[in-house]
């Protein structure tokens, strides 16, 4: 791809709102995850891992979200349960981003978290580059016991949300408002 096209692809990227079948097949998902593994990573610690949720896995994901909310709140009405569960069905496939830090004398945990966070964006970009829509989502609760079990979370690991991936329904896109660089950037010269 010529450089200006790559620039436009990056500058005009937008998250998807409605994602449906078809989802990427296994080899396409693997390509997407490979790009996840290219993020800047001090010391090459790879302080992340991915869980791909699809098919019936979505029900397990849905149940684990409800369980986390129940454990946090004590109780949850049916409407809220249904709303939480629907998050797992918002796309045919999700890539859950797990932050998995290493004990390291030189690389502090915050750097590892920064690196792991980059993987979410890399997964979004790779999905877009391969023709799929994507959006990074989260659910606002600490993982409960079922989520820890379902995603085999170690004590030091945490979920940084997930990327919904699928075929984007056609929609009118307005172009992005450029970033107000006077407000968000500072040139030290
Ligand atoms: C860690 C993380 C979690 C997010 N969780 C949600 C979410 O639960 N719901 C939501 O609408 N957007 C969420 N977002 C924001 C969307 O991914 C997206 O960036 C936003 O809708 C703006 O769209 P854009 O990417 O096209 O600018 C999250 C972003 C990040 C980085």
Short description:
This protein is α+β, with helices and mostly antiparallel strands and 189 residues long. The protein is 42% helix and 17% strand.
Describe the structure.
Helix 2 packs antiparallel against helix 5 and helix 3 (57-73) packs across helix 4. The mean pLDDT is 96. 42% of the residues lie in helices and 17% in strands. The longest helix has 21 residues, at 109-129. The chain is α+β, with helices and mostly antiparallel strands and 189 residues long. It has one domain: NADH Oxidase (3-Layer(aba) Sandwich). Strands 1, 2, 3, 4 and 5 form a five-stranded antiparallel β-sheet that branches. The chain is globular, with a radius of gyration of 18 Å. The protein contains seven helices and five strands, in the order αβαβααβαβαβα. Flavin mononucleotide binds next to strand 4 and strand 5.
CATH secondary-structure class: Alpha Beta
Enumerate the spans where pLDDT stays under 50 for 5 or more consecutive residues: none
Number of discrete helical segments: 7
Reported for the largest beta sheet, the result is:
5 strands, antiparallel
Q: Which ions, cofactors or small ligands are bound in this entry?
A: flavin mononucleotide
CATH-level-2 architecture: 3-Layer(aba) Sandwich
How many domain units?
A: 1
